[in-house]
Known about the structure:
Order of helices and strands: EEEHEEEE
Number of helices: 1
Number of strands: 7
Structural class: mainly beta
Strand order of the largest sheet: 3-2-4-5
Largest sheet: 4 strands, antiparallel
Shape: elongated
Amino acid sequence: RAEGLQADGETPDPYCIVWFHGKKHKTDRKNNESSPVWNEKICLGSVDLQDIKKGQFVFDELTFSVMDHDKFSSDDKLAEAKITLEPLMSSCSVNLNLPLSRGKLYAQLQFTPETTK
């Protein structure tokens, strides 16, 4: 969810793009909403945590891009937040409060260990 989003001269039609490990997930768009609630679960795949801890994993950053949908022109980026995952790995679940240049973004990350067969 986000709050306090602002677009130039109008209420935004926001959506969020989440980037991780070369994969992109786009949330649904919320029309005319400065405090959207997406409430979506996103599975970003699996990563060997030992590779991150050893510094051998290149994509250890999670990027949130909050966009404003425009009907007749290209969409505008309202704000972007990036976080490094390594400091968060000691927890199974982390609540994030990310300040944006135009508002705040809230997200919950959940790390689920995979069992090996």
